[in-house]
Amino acid sequence: MKKTLSFLLALLLAVFAVAGVMPAAFADEGSAYIEITKPPYGETVTEGDDATFISRAEGYQGLIWMFVSADGETVWQNGEAINAFPGLEMAGVETEELHLISIPFSMNGWFVRAKFIDQDGNYVLSEPAEITVLQGVVPSPSIVPKSAGAKLVPGESKTLSVEASSRMGDEIKYQWYRSYSSYRSSGEAILGATEPSYTPPEELGQVFYFVGVWCIRGRDASAPIYTTPVAIVYTESESAPSAEPTASPTQTPQTPKNSGGGNPLFSHGNALLLVLSAVLLLTALAVAATLLVLRTVEKKHRGAAEEVDHSDETEQT
I want to staple 166 with a disulfide (CB 3.0 to 4.6 A). Which of 20, 131, 132, 170 is the partner? Predict the structure, then answer.
């Protein structure tokens, strides 16, 4: 049956291509390197169920999963679909096996395509695989998340909320969950959190919150639809810097310690004193040396004068 549907869809697309009315989302650029060996097949599920789409190829460098509307005018890529279809979760978006989790009824009639990209940036698209979503006995509600995550400090708060409606006017139920990872599978129900809004308590660190919404009709219930977990992060508030103490008038200022290490004699504060001392010492040594030389010269002159006088006295005698 799936192969027959795929063949009919491929034939229809071929007719569109010949007629020149091929939707832009179904256009194929082409690549000389890529060969698709397995296209994905369409899946029929009941809303809230899961489905897996597999497509394989050779010679590609990158892979993008595309979600295409029935008219081909709207295209979402990879994680964009999570925001487009509240309650949907995905896994394997970068692999050849795409897992859709908790498929909402709003995906009914949409197509999944694998976009294989080669080393030059050219790409080849797989055949489209249609998603058929059946309503349960009680249709699931439509939900719209009304809040995002936040970073808070003690004393602040953040109220999370969701807006839900039933297509058949059924009663709507809520249940909020807490998780310490971004995966819903690790979530635990919060006791008493059964309203459209919830204010998380103060808890240091990062905690994820999400809500499950479903419809009730008598004894029957719809499949739950979940919001995407959002993070509430509480961090310790930064304490205000304390003022530096000021010295009282009676206190004697302390001498700053030498921060350079080693002998304090060579600190910056003593450098000028050392230079002046050295200059004075050198000046004193120069003056002493000059005086010594002058005294020596004076002695020589005296000695010479005495010898002359003595020789004069001898000649007179």
Answer: 170
Which helix (H) or strand (E) is 296 found in, with range? Answer: helix 268-316
CATH number of 142-234: 2.60.40.10
* Residue whose C-alpha is closest to residue 104's, from 83, 133, 80: 133
User: Helix (H, G, I), strand (E, B), or coil: what is residue 93?
Assistant: coil
Distance between CA 82 and CA 70 in Å, rounded? 18
Q: Is the pTM of this model over 0.70?
A: no
Assigned token pair, 300: 């020589």
Which of the two residues, 288 and 137, has the higher pLDDT score?
Answer: 137
pLDDT band at 24 (very low <50, low <70, confident <90, very high): very low
What does the alpha-carbon distance between residue 222 and residue 285 come to, in Å, rounded to a whole number?
108
What's the one-letter identity of residue 81?
A
Strands of the 197-198 sheet, one edge to the other: 142-145, 160-165, 197-198
